[in-house]
Design a protein that fits this description.
The chain is α/β, with parallel strands linked by helices. The chain has a single domain, classed as Rossmann fold (3-Layer(aba) Sandwich), CATH 3.40.50.2020. The chain is built from 5 helices and 9 strands. A 6-stranded mixed sheet has the order 4-3-2-5-6-7, with helices on both faces. It has a 3-stranded antiparallel sheet with strand order 1-9-8. The site of inosinic acid has 15 residues, from strand 5, helix 5 and strand 8.
Length: about 190
Protein backbone atom coordinates (compact mmCIF):
# COMPACT_ATOMS: atom_id res chain seq x y z
CA UNK A 1 0.00 0.00 0.00
CA UNK A 2 1.26 3.45 -0.85
CA UNK A 3 1.85 5.69 2.11
CA UNK A 4 0.84 9.28 1.56
CA UNK A 5 1.12 10.24 5.23
CA UNK A 6 1.37 13.98 5.79
CA UNK A 7 0.80 14.77 2.17
CA UNK A 8 -2.62 16.25 2.36
CA UNK A 9 -3.82 17.99 -0.77
CA UNK A 10 -2.93 21.32 0.84
CA UNK A 11 0.73 20.49 1.24
CA UNK A 12 0.80 19.15 -2.30
CA UNK A 13 -0.77 22.27 -3.75
CA UNK A 14 1.65 24.50 -1.89
CA UNK A 15 4.35 23.29 -4.31
CA UNK A 16 2.20 23.80 -7.35
CA UNK A 17 2.30 20.14 -8.36
CA UNK A 18 0.98 16.80 -7.25
CA UNK A 19 3.18 14.11 -5.71
CA UNK A 20 2.14 10.79 -7.18
CA UNK A 21 3.68 7.70 -5.53
CA UNK A 22 4.93 5.07 -8.00
CA UNK A 23 6.99 2.76 -5.75
CA UNK A 24 5.68 2.20 -2.22
CA UNK A 25 7.76 1.72 0.94
CA UNK A 26 6.68 -1.93 0.99
CA UNK A 27 7.77 -2.46 -2.61
CA UNK A 28 11.16 -0.93 -1.79
CA UNK A 29 11.57 -3.15 1.26
CA UNK A 30 10.64 -6.29 -0.65
CA UNK A 31 13.07 -5.57 -3.47
CA UNK A 32 15.95 -4.97 -1.04
CA UNK A 33 15.95 -8.63 0.00
CA UNK A 34 16.65 -9.48 -3.65
CA UNK A 35 19.40 -6.87 -3.83
CA UNK A 36 21.17 -8.47 -0.85
CA UNK A 37 21.11 -11.85 -2.62
CA UNK A 38 22.47 -10.26 -5.80
CA UNK A 39 25.31 -8.58 -3.93
CA UNK A 40 26.31 -11.93 -2.46
CA UNK A 41 26.23 -13.54 -5.90
CA UNK A 42 28.28 -10.98 -7.82
CA UNK A 43 31.10 -10.06 -5.44
CA UNK A 44 33.15 -11.18 -2.44
CA UNK A 45 31.65 -9.66 0.69
CA UNK A 46 34.31 -10.40 3.30
CA UNK A 47 36.13 -7.10 2.78
CA UNK A 48 33.28 -5.01 1.47
CA UNK A 49 33.31 -1.23 1.26
CA UNK A 50 30.16 0.55 0.15
CA UNK A 51 30.74 3.96 -1.40
CA UNK A 52 27.56 6.03 -1.52
CA UNK A 53 27.29 8.95 -3.92
CA UNK A 54 25.79 11.89 -2.06
CA UNK A 55 23.39 13.31 -1.53
CA UNK A 56 20.69 11.19 -3.12
CA UNK A 57 21.82 7.74 -2.00
CA UNK A 58 22.01 8.21 1.77
CA UNK A 59 18.53 6.87 2.53
CA UNK A 60 19.05 3.81 0.36
CA UNK A 61 22.47 3.21 1.93
CA UNK A 62 21.03 3.42 5.44
CA UNK A 63 18.40 0.76 4.75
CA UNK A 64 20.68 -1.45 2.65
CA UNK A 65 23.53 -1.55 5.18
CA UNK A 66 21.21 -2.53 8.02
CA UNK A 67 19.63 -5.26 5.93
CA UNK A 68 23.06 -6.55 4.91
CA UNK A 69 24.10 -6.73 8.54
CA UNK A 70 20.97 -8.73 9.33
CA UNK A 71 22.18 -11.16 6.68
CA UNK A 72 25.59 -11.26 8.35
CA UNK A 73 27.32 -9.15 5.73
CA UNK A 74 29.39 -6.40 7.29
CA UNK A 75 31.04 -3.48 5.60
CA UNK A 76 32.82 -0.18 5.80
CA UNK A 77 31.07 2.80 4.27
CA UNK A 78 32.32 6.01 2.76
CA UNK A 79 30.86 8.88 0.78
CA UNK A 80 31.73 10.69 -2.40
CA UNK A 81 30.19 13.74 -4.02
CA UNK A 82 30.52 14.10 -7.76
CA UNK A 83 29.16 17.03 -9.70
CA UNK A 84 29.80 19.47 -12.47
CA UNK A 85 30.86 23.06 -12.04
CA UNK A 86 29.27 25.92 -13.95
CA UNK A 87 25.73 26.86 -14.93
CA UNK A 88 25.38 24.22 -17.51
CA UNK A 89 26.03 21.48 -14.99
CA UNK A 90 23.51 18.97 -16.32
CA UNK A 91 24.57 19.08 -19.92
CA UNK A 92 28.29 19.79 -19.65
CA UNK A 93 29.11 16.17 -18.88
CA UNK A 94 32.25 17.29 -17.08
CA UNK A 95 31.95 15.36 -13.83
CA UNK A 96 34.47 16.20 -11.10
CA UNK A 97 35.09 15.15 -7.51
CA UNK A 98 33.56 17.61 -5.04
CA UNK A 99 34.17 15.40 -2.01
CA UNK A 100 36.40 12.36 -2.08
CA UNK A 101 36.33 9.23 0.07
CA UNK A 102 38.79 8.90 2.93
CA UNK A 103 39.14 5.13 2.71
CA UNK A 104 41.92 3.19 1.00
CA UNK A 105 40.16 0.90 -1.48
CA UNK A 106 43.24 -1.06 -2.56
CA UNK A 107 42.53 -4.79 -2.59
CA UNK A 108 38.97 -4.26 -1.34
CA UNK A 109 35.59 -5.24 -2.74
CA UNK A 110 33.82 -2.02 -3.65
CA UNK A 111 30.11 -1.50 -4.15
CA UNK A 112 29.26 1.97 -5.45
CA UNK A 113 25.65 2.89 -4.73
CA UNK A 114 23.62 5.74 -6.15
CA UNK A 115 19.98 6.72 -6.07
CA UNK A 116 19.44 6.76 -9.82
CA UNK A 117 21.23 5.96 -13.05
CA UNK A 118 20.17 8.59 -15.52
CA UNK A 119 22.61 9.75 -18.24
CA UNK A 120 25.18 7.47 -16.59
CA UNK A 121 27.84 10.18 -16.28
CA UNK A 122 28.03 10.09 -12.49
CA UNK A 123 28.27 6.30 -12.12
CA UNK A 124 30.73 6.01 -14.99
CA UNK A 125 33.03 8.62 -13.47
CA UNK A 126 32.73 7.10 -9.98
CA UNK A 127 33.75 3.69 -11.32
CA UNK A 128 36.71 5.15 -13.24
CA UNK A 129 37.97 6.99 -10.17
CA UNK A 130 37.78 3.93 -7.93
CA UNK A 131 39.21 1.53 -10.54
CA UNK A 132 42.38 3.62 -10.74
CA UNK A 133 43.03 2.99 -7.05
CA UNK A 134 43.56 -0.76 -7.32
CA UNK A 135 40.52 -2.37 -5.68
CA UNK A 136 39.91 -6.13 -5.89
CA UNK A 137 36.60 -5.48 -7.66
CA UNK A 138 34.12 -2.67 -8.29
CA UNK A 139 30.38 -3.18 -8.79
CA UNK A 140 27.65 -0.62 -9.35
CA UNK A 141 24.26 -0.64 -7.67
CA UNK A 142 21.56 1.88 -8.58
CA UNK A 143 18.27 2.00 -6.72
CA UNK A 144 16.56 3.29 -9.88
CA UNK A 145 17.48 3.10 -13.54
CA UNK A 146 16.11 5.19 -16.40
CA UNK A 147 17.65 3.34 -19.37
CA UNK A 148 15.98 5.62 -21.93
CA UNK A 149 18.02 8.57 -20.68
CA UNK A 150 21.44 6.97 -21.01
CA UNK A 151 24.20 8.96 -22.74
CA UNK A 152 27.26 7.11 -21.41
CA UNK A 153 27.83 3.44 -22.07
CA UNK A 154 27.35 2.23 -18.49
CA UNK A 155 25.10 -0.30 -16.82
CA UNK A 156 24.63 -1.03 -13.14
CA UNK A 157 25.42 -4.55 -11.99
CA UNK A 158 22.40 -4.34 -9.71
CA UNK A 159 19.28 -2.25 -10.34
CA UNK A 160 16.49 -1.90 -7.80
CA UNK A 161 13.80 -0.76 -10.22
CA UNK A 162 13.78 0.20 -13.86
CA UNK A 163 11.55 3.24 -14.41
CA UNK A 164 10.43 5.18 -17.49
CA UNK A 165 11.86 8.58 -18.43
CA UNK A 166 10.06 10.57 -15.77
CA UNK A 167 11.39 12.81 -13.00
CA UNK A 168 11.08 11.21 -9.56
CA UNK A 169 11.48 12.29 -5.93
CA UNK A 170 11.50 10.74 -2.48
CA UNK A 171 13.58 8.17 -0.63
CA UNK A 172 16.62 10.45 -0.95
CA UNK A 173 15.85 11.97 -4.35
CA UNK A 174 15.03 15.65 -4.58
CA UNK A 175 13.41 18.19 -6.81
CA UNK A 176 14.77 21.70 -6.11
CA UNK A 177 16.22 20.33 -2.82
CA UNK A 178 12.82 19.13 -1.63
CA UNK A 179 11.13 15.80 -0.93
CA UNK A 180 14.17 13.70 -0.02
CA UNK A 181 12.39 12.66 3.18
CA UNK A 182 9.46 10.92 1.52
CA UNK A 183 9.42 7.19 2.38
CA UNK A 184 8.32 6.23 -1.15
CA UNK A 185 9.29 7.11 -4.75
CA UNK A 186 6.94 9.49 -6.50
CA UNK A 187 6.64 11.34 -9.75
CA UNK A 188 5.49 14.94 -10.01
CA UNK A 189 2.34 15.93 -11.83
CA UNK A 190 2.76 17.94 -13.99
CA UNK A 191 6.34 16.91 -14.63
CA UNK A 192 8.87 19.72 -14.04
CA UNK A 193 10.46 21.16 -17.20
CA UNK A 194 14.21 21.27 -17.90
P1 LIG B 1 23.51 10.94 -14.21
O1 LIG B 1 24.93 11.33 -14.02
O2 LIG B 1 22.83 11.70 -15.32
O3 LIG B 1 23.27 9.45 -14.34
O4 LIG B 1 22.73 11.51 -13.01
C1 LIG B 1 22.62 10.97 -11.85
C2 LIG B 1 22.19 12.01 -10.84
O5 LIG B 1 21.19 12.93 -11.35
C3 LIG B 1 21.54 11.27 -9.72
O6 LIG B 1 22.50 10.91 -8.77
C4 LIG B 1 20.52 12.27 -9.24
O7 LIG B 1 21.10 13.10 -8.28
C5 LIG B 1 20.15 13.11 -10.42
N1 LIG B 1 18.85 12.67 -11.02
C6 LIG B 1 18.66 12.07 -12.20
N2 LIG B 1 17.38 11.81 -12.44
C7 LIG B 1 16.71 12.23 -11.34
C8 LIG B 1 15.32 12.21 -10.95
O8 LIG B 1 14.41 11.74 -11.66
N3 LIG B 1 15.03 12.75 -9.74
C9 LIG B 1 15.98 13.27 -8.93
N4 LIG B 1 17.29 13.30 -9.24
C10 LIG B 1 17.65 12.78 -10.44
MG1 LIG C 1 22.70 12.18 -7.00
Amino acid sequence: MINKTNYSSNSINKFGYDIVPIISSDDLKTRFEGIVDEIRQIMPVDNLIIIALLKGSFVFLADLMRLLSRHNIHMEIDFMILGSYGDNAESSGNVVIKKDIETDVKGKSILIVDDILDTGRTMKKAREIIMERGPQCVKLCALLDKPERRIEDVQADIVGFEIPDTFVVGYGLDYARRHRELPFIARLEPEPKG
